[in-house]
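Troubleshooting: if your tokenizer reports a length mismatch, compare against these two reference records.
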Amino acid sequence: MTHPDPRGVTAGQLDRLNALLSTAMAAGHYRQAYAGVASLPLRDAAGLEALPILRKQDFVALQRETPPFGGLMAAGSRPDYLFVSPGPIHEPGFMRPEFWRMDRALAAAGFGPDDIVHNTFSYHLTPGAWIFDSGARVLGCSTIPAGNAPVELQVQAIRQYAATGYAGTPDFLKRLIEAYGEAYGQSGTHAFPITRALVSGGAFTPGLQAYYAKAGIRVSQVYATAELGLIACDVADRQAMRIDDGLIVEIVDPETGRAMPFGRTGEVVVTTLRDDYPLIRFGTGDLSAFAQDDPGDGAPALVGWLGRSDQAVKVRGMFVRPQQLQGLQARIEGVRRIRLIVDRDNEQDSAVLFCGVDAHQAAGDTTARAAEIAERVREACHVRIAVSIVDESTMTDDDKLIVDMR
């Protein structure tokens, strides 16, 4: 079954969208951005194509001009959470379930009120952990806020609380299973207690899928972002990812913003139907396509994540962008060229930042300087990345700042 309009927008969603546009255009960013462009009411979702795409890199300039949220926040809205993502970019969070909607994905993955969820997304300044935390709270789950605590403390908590569920990146669960086995064994009363998981923020490879199936853990994958919350979750044995009905999703040509033919790969552009922090035609930078088959309920679906429309990559759940690396290079004396190589090692992300310096500097002991640069990378990108200082003449001159080998 295919959709005549792959966006699958219902009459109710279109009415909600028109009401949202009318309110958003009364003040703030959208009033200026849509002046002379938007013609209301929209007759169908295709009318969105007349509106400019809002991209994450736009947030820095908008927020500098109109702090803290760039004029995107609805009048009278007061966030419950105030986040800071690399950029820096300020992002709001609301405790209302309809803001992030992650309870829907957790419920689809089999989570319920009897579950104890071990949440390994970071609770520090960025929204990731809170998105999953809020969904678990709606369902009545208990949550272990593990974040990025040392692995030995995490496996101890998993055993002591008999955690039944996991939220985190696809590869870190494997590390926890292995660490738990080394600490407590994997048989009888000491068997790893987690039986279901909802993962995001990294590659869920066939190798990992087979590993978890053998371990008896039901793992579902969710597509979400810090700005939007839940976008889609996998259904029908990962043949499609059902789009959440609180959103309107387009697949567009990144250059023109026009819809791609059904089934063709393009950029995922999302419009939220929430009134507190409306994001209209938010360009995620992610590539996907509408699935040829629906997920069984007539809802639109995506085939999954197919890469990035820019050079940005995710390393252990955190985006690293070319602009961040360029900023680092400009602030580090003597570094003439920079390149991040991302790969996989034992089903986990591995990354090395190569910093090209002159031959004389590369010939000496670079240990201390590499450690100093690695700390700067961690502060800027919120992820630990190994640093290698090399002779700049050994680096390929092709202007690529990021190479993803995965």
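Reference record two:
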Amino acid sequence: MGIGYWIADRAAVESKSANNRVAFACIGLEGKGRSDSVDAGRLGDVVAVCDIDANHLAAAGNRFPKAKQFTDCRILLDEMHKSIDAVTVSTPDHIHARMLGRVNEVHIWTNQPIWPQGLDRPAPSTSG
């Protein structure tokens, strides 16, 4: 399971004060999605939650009672795109792109990679 998040067009434009809170939508709510959505709630306001599993959605509804609930991320993004600043996507890797739509800004961070990263590039091919 991987995570990522998308910043909506309006985040950089409308945020005029450090006191403004980021409005998050959270897609994928169990496993890693549980901690991602809790972190989002700590850092901003979770205004929408989405999961295809009704039990996961209900549990998230208890954590975020003011958040609008969805079982289809496409409907969430269609209905809420003007009301959200960022989206956490805590779903299996093969369906991330479907939720990210047009990406304007991405933030990625790791505090200690546990697998080799930034390995040397392969030598250029000499065949023509």
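Descriptive notes for reference record two:
- The first strand starts at residue 4 and ends at 7.
- Residues 7 and 105 are 6 Å apart (CA to CA).
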